[in-house]
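Translate sequence into structure tokens.
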Amino acid sequence: MSEEKLLNIGKAAEKLNISPETLRRWDKSGKLVAIKTLGGQRRYREEDLKKLLSSKILLMASEWATNKTPEEISEAFYCQNRAVFETRLLELSKLLGFSNEFAPLIISAVGEIGNNSFDHNLGNWPDVPGIFFGYDLKSGIIVLADRGQGILTTLQRVKPELYLHIDALETAFTEVITGRAPEKRGNGLKFVKKVVQKGAISLKFQTGNAKLTMNSRAKNFNLETTTDHARGTLTLIKFTVNNNQNL
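Result follows.
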């Protein structure tokens, strides 16, 4: 591949609208591996950057949710309070409109996840309040993240015997505890599971070092532990794009 098709780290960061330091972290973590010159400088293929742009929202949210010291995120993705989130959720609802048969279910699932973050961290945000909320409707993805207390801490208030993130995550998606706060987070996630089972979406949901994956219309989900540690929660929602939609 010719040198003309490679970009230095500054140009690549500019193209992706992120900082060079973020690119360095992505290189080390394997999210976007650079080509090293003989002098040890990073170079990036334009083709790789084009592929990355479609998943950029998820990468940005993941960086924000997992880094010990989060970078400032664009106002386009940051909902500092519930009012901002609900306003942007309404905008999303209008964009999906009536052209997607599952639009009401998708919006309800997103609303459950986003509002849970505000409900269960109100006055107790560990560092940055609010949530990351972004979407790419042409690619059929919606991403949410928060740097809150996480599901384990939330459910330990009523189930102190919970010790691992993966156990708390399974409990949140399977066990009905009560209808009172703070347990509503778990019950809300069981509603999200039903939305997946109806075929509206597929789901990836992480809290702490535990990740849940559930495919559209699946009866069950998969649980695994990860090396990345989400400070609060990180959610990826995927849905089928209707090519007739004007998004």
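Note: The chain has nine helices and eight strands.
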